[in-house]
């Protein structure tokens, strides 16, 4: 009996040691998966930031295009105003020259008229009478009188014309001066507008340059996250391969565990009491726990796949190498990835769906559809019973 006990203890120690190695690998896989999930979330945030920066850069590009267009229009209007102002100033100079010529002409006419008036004054009335009386005949008298009147009228007419011309030119000068002032004011306003637009163009260009740098940095972050995710996935694949190799080495041990489990089940059916492991009991909490795990591990599988996952849990409860409660099996360290990642807790809090709850109830009621203690996603590396996307062994 002592020898048999030692053998059983040795077997138990080897099984526990083997399980520890598996747990360690599974723990690494769980941590890598958690890291990948974190990286995926960070990548999404970086992508969101990149999209936001891309939109911002696009908006700034539109603004810059609009400001540049407005600046070009402002420069064109300013050039046009400068041309008009230059033309007006030339016309103003020409007008001022014409006005000066009219003034000179008026002065000349005025001086000539003054000379004639002085001459007529110096001649006095008797002199003018003598001129008239010196006429040889009446016709000559009339001619001389008309000549004196015509000279007087001519002087008055020419003076009036030159005064009118001078006033016209002066009016035109005033008009051109007003136009010059208006164009100068417009030029000042347009120059200020041009400067404002130039400042907007420079400011927007700087903002666009900064946004592009930020966008490039955000895109680099996305690429870095993608590269790290790929590296972590490659590492996860290595760990999965390592775990598959460990599982392959333990196939014989698993078979012995299965034989022991079947023997225990047969003994339980034959004996109502004994020294073996106490038969598991279930309650509402077990149904909730098992249903949540089934949904996490086989939510997208067939009903047969859901029953098989539940059966693995109950087979472990019945095995002496695992805890003897549903909660103990599910929460055993390094066994189920959803438990480690927190997804199991989330589903448990919300409650599993009807199909998974029904499958859990059936399994807890004794509908054990498969006699395996392990399952994993099927990648062809482990022989066993394939149901859906899982291989049970």
Task: Give a concise summary.
This protein is mostly helical. It is built from nine helices and three strands.
Structure commentary:
With 393 residues, the chain is mainly alpha-helical. Helix content is 82%, strand content 2%. It has helices spanning 2-133, 138-249, 251-270, 284-298, 303-318, 326-330, 337-341, 343-350, 354-364; strands spanning 375-377, 385-387, 390-392. The chain has a three-stranded antiparallel β-sheet with strand order 1-3-2, covered by helices on one side. A hairpin with a 2-residue loop joins strand 2 (385-387) and strand 3 (390-392). Helix 4 packs across helix 5, helix 4 crosses helix 9 (354-364) and helix 5 (303-318) packs parallel to helix 9. The protein is rod-shaped and about 180 Å long. The protein starts with a helix and ends with a strand. The relative contact order is 0.10.
Helix content: over 70%
End-to-end Cα distance, whole Å, is 32 Å
Mean pLDDT: 79
SSE class: mainly alpha
Poorly predicted runs are 1-18, 272-279
Shape: rod-shaped
Biggest sheet features: 3 strands, antiparallel
Radius of gyration: 56 Å
Adjacency order of strands in the biggest sheet:
1-3-2
Number of DSSP strands?
3
DSSP helical segment count: 9
Strand content: under 5%
Write the element-wise H/E pattern from the N-terminal end onward: HHHHHHHHHEEE
């Amino acid at each position: 009996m002592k020898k048999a006990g030692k053998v059983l203890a040795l077997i138990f120690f080897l099984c526990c040691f083997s399980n520890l190695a598996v747990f360690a690998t599974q723990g690494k896989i769980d941590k890598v998966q958690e890291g990948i999930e974190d990286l995926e979330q960070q990548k999404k945030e970086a992508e969101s930031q990149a999209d936001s920066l891309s939109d911002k850069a696009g908006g700034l590009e539109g603004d810059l295009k609009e400001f540049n267009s407005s600046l070009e229009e402002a420069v064109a209007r300013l050039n046009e105003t400068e041309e008009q102002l230059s033309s007006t100033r030339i016309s103003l100079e020409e007008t001022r020259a014409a006005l000066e010529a009219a003034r000179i002409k008026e002065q000349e006419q005025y001086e000539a008229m003054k000379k004639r008036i002085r001459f007529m004054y110096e001649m006095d009335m008797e002199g003018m009478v003598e001129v008239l009386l010196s006429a040889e005949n009446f016709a000559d008298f009339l001619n001389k009188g008309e000549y004196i009147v015509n000279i007087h009228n001519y002087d008055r007419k020419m003076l009036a014309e030159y005064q009118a011309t001078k006033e016209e030119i002066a009016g035109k000068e005033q008009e051109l001066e007003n136009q010059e002032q208006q164009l100068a004011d417009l030029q000042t306003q347009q120059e200020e507008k041009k400067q404002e637009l130039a400042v907007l163009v420079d400011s927007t260009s700087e903002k666009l340059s900064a946004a592009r740098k930020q966008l490039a940095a955000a895109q680099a972050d996305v690429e870095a996250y993608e590269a790290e995710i790929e590296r972590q996935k490659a590492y996860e694949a290595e760990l999965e391969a390592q775990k598959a190799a460990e599982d392959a080495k333990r196939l014989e041990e698993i078979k012995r565990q299965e034989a022991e489990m079947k023997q225990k089940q047969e003994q339980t059916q034959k004996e109502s009491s004994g020294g073996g492991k106490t038969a598991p009991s279930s309650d509402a909490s077990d149904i909730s726990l098992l249903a949540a795990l089934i949904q996490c591990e086989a939510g997208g599988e067939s009903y047969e796949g859901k029953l098989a996952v539940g059966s693995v849990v109950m087979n472990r409860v019945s095995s002496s190498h695992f805890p003897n409660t549903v909660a103990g099996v599910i929460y055993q360290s390094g066994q189920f990835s959803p438990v480690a990642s927190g997804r199991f807790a989330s589903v448990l809090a919300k409650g599993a769906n009807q199909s998974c709850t029904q499958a859990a109830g059936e399994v807890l009621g004794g509908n054990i559809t498969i006699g395996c203690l392990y399952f994993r996603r099927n990648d062809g590396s482990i022989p066993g019973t394939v149901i859906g996307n899982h291989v049970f062994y």
